[in-house]
Amino acid sequence: MTTPESVQPASAVEHWRSMVEAERAQSARVSDRAAGGPAQRWSQGRAEAFRADPHRDGDHDVELISRFVGADRTLLDVGAGAGRIALPLALRCEEVIAVEAAPSMATILKEEAAKAEISNVTLIEGRWQDVEPPSADVVLCWNVLNYVEDIGAFMKKVDAHARERVLVVLHEVSPMAQVYPFWRRVHGGEPARSPGLAELLAVLWELDIHPDLQMLPPRPRILQSREAAREQMRGRLGVAPGSPEDARLEEALDELLEERSGSLTVRGASVVREGLLTWRPGTRSGAA
Ligand SMILES: C[S@@+](CC[C@H](N)C(=O)[O-])C[C@H]1O[C@@H](n2cnc3c(N)ncnc32)[C@H](O)[C@@H]1O
Predict the structure, then answer these.
(1) Quick check: 230 and 175 in contact, CB under 8 A?
(2) Does residue 44 have a pLDDT over 80?
(3) Which residue of 49, 90, 231, 234 has the smallest Cβ count within 10 Å?
């Protein structure tokens, strides 16, 4: 007979952890890289895709974050990557502190900062969980949380380091959603999904944090070429060239890649939806 304890739903924090662990265990079965932390997940090649000119104009994401960070304010960017947001924001605000765990990403951030002669960025290399950065007016965390196991402690630390506002962007479903149709054909079975926006909202509510949610414009996922798609999927799925899995990947590319208005997309998985969660730090149980 079922006892009341056994039907108790797991807490949102525990549910998040179980999703991250299931995804990690499944990925580890097919790829050493995916089993590791950020430093293993972000190869030099993958990091290069995040390199961007800090002086670029008309970038939707930069404009969005700029609205929350005044010229006399400081920004702490947790999981800053190659500085896609941190560097253009440094050109517009007082100071940026960038925390980044993957050396490949940190190297690009340093190179781009030097090239653009940006001197008001302090880079702290390491995992957010392990470093002790100063607080800032605004704390940003854009697409960083999918593989974080202890999400409760991570978010409490984010909240504690913000004086005015926390900004978190996350996918509605995993950024790997584009890979799932390939996973099914190459490895068989269902891919384990890493947590997304719905799971994060449940975690924040459990922490008594009640953010506003703004959905960002959906972005089409464009692949540059069939060769680029093959390389990306080999990396993401842990497929060795010439293996039986590689032959199945080739068939999947035939079946799933479709050309629309001159660009390549994955059939049925071509749109990425992200949401921006914002809140005032330290506000609990209905405070403003
Ligand atoms: C998808 S990239 C996004 C980078 C950047 N926020 C952006 O939007 O361009 C995720 C980044 O978060 C970093 N990251 C993941 N977990 C982290 C952690 N626990 N502490 C610090 N950085 C982390 C990864 O190394 C990677 O550079």
Answers:
(1) no
(2) no
(3) 49
